[in-house]
Amino acid sequence: xxxxxxxxxxxxxxxxxxxxxxxxxxxxxxxxxxxxxxxxxxxxxxxxxxxxxxxxxxxxxxxxxxxxxxxxxxxxxxxxxxxxxxxxxxxxxxxxxxxxxxxxxxxxxxxxxxxxxxxxxxxxxxxxxxxxxxxxxxxxxxxxxxxxxxxxxxxxxxxxxxxxxxxxxxxxxxxxxxxxxxxxxxxxxxxxxxxxxxxxxxxxxxxxxxxxxxxxxxxxxxxxxxxxxxxxxxxxxxxxxxxxxxxxxxxxxxxxxxxx
Length: 260
Fold this sequence. Notes:
5-stranded mixed beta barrel; alpha+beta; 3 domains; 4-stranded antiparallel β-sheet; DNA polymerase, domain 1; flat
């Protein structure tokens, strides 16, 4: 996978493969940095006293470490395994997998354009990483919103091919949140007014919204969106619309962010 930097930065999380384990520490290769060698001192393998280092690391194992220090002149990279928690490890591994996939996808783009992968990185790959944060982030965003390239100022014959490859190979990730609406209407046809209010909320939605009947007077609202911010904004907009519609005909509705 192509990188812009020869060495990682201090504090960065990196994916490593354990090459050899000694009593005093472990030597690893950094998967994202051309397999450069790094070292984990035994004191940085785990919290507390480490009696048997092989209880924590073994040859061939994939691990996530935090960069403690870099001496590029000597080629030394000091790492810590104990400074990475499980959540950070899962996120980093997923990011690493995504970037590996993105690297393969840009190779497909390059082949369709009749270019080399390196030339494609130089022409637009690195610029996409700067604009979207990661290369996979660019593919994911474009798969959802093709106009994102133009909005970010990218143009040229390669953009059409990039969009095609993104749509063919990337399924945008979504988050899901839910909440509870309690709805009542005293009118004889109150049930119909409740239905109309719910339909109005769904019709007004910009994201994926589902309404589930739980049992009078409760209805669960489920919103799916690309990220939590968008989901929360959509939840607020939809439920506000529903409540307003029901109140306009004499009904009442209360929204709880968490089901009660």
